[in-house]
Amino acid sequence: MTWLGYLGTSTFNRERHLKTIPMRVQVRLLPGGEDEFLEMEPEANALQLLDRLELSPDAHIILRDGRPLPVDALLADGDELDVVTVISGGSQRGRTF
């Protein structure tokens, strides 16, 4: 069998192989956080990133290119993401109950 013939009988599955290679994303926690690089599973989504960072999706927004990502949005290798802590509240001044 020639070398090329051997390649034709290989059981190597490129698509399956690519799904096992972790992707790398850059994350900046705001306000005041430093950049951090994380390896994530292929086809990870924004909610899985928050889980990995042990952050609540109710109190954080993930931004890609300045735009918010839904929690089910898939991440991509090389993404540069900002994770913003949402602060809410207000003044109690002037309120009557």
Description:
This protein starts with a helix and ends in a 12-residue tail after the last strand. The protein has a domain at 22-85: Ubiquitin-like (UB roll) (Roll), CATH 3.10.20. The chain is elongated, with a radius of gyration of 21 Å. The relative contact order is 0.20. With 97 residues, the chain is of the alpha+beta class. It is built from 3 helices and 5 strands. The mean pLDDT is 83. The protein has a 5-stranded mixed beta sheet, covered by helices on one side. Helix content is 19%, strand content 28%.
Could you outline the blueprint of secondary structure elements for this entry?
Layout lengths: L2 H6 L5 H5 L4 E8 L4 E6 L5 H7 L7 E5 L2 E2 L11 E6 L12
Parallel strand pairs: 1-5
Antiparallel strand pairs: 1-2, 3-4, 3-5
Entry summary:
By secondary structure, the chain is an alpha+beta fold. The chain is 19% helix and 28% strand.
Attribute tags:
single chain, 5 strands, Ubiquitin-like (UB roll), 97 residues, alpha+beta
What structural category characterises the helix and strand content? alpha+beta
Task: Report, as a whole number of angstroms, the end-to-end distance.
Answer: 87 Å
Q: What fold name stands as the CATH topology of the domain at 22-85?
A: Ubiquitin-like (UB roll)
Summarize model confidence as the mean pLDDT. Answer: 83
Q: What fraction of the residues are assigned to beta strands by DSSP? A: 25-35%
What's the story with the biggest beta sheet? 5 strands, mixed
Spatial ordering of strands, largest sheet: 2-1-5-3-4
CATH architecture verdict of the domain at 22-85: Roll
Number of helices: 3
Following the backbone from N to C, one meets helices and strands in this order, namely HHEEHEEE
Query: Could you name the CATH homologous superfamily of the domain at 22-85?
Result: Phosphatidylinositol 3-kinase Catalytic Subunit, Chain A, domain 1
In the CATH scheme, the class of the domain at 22-85 would be Alpha Beta
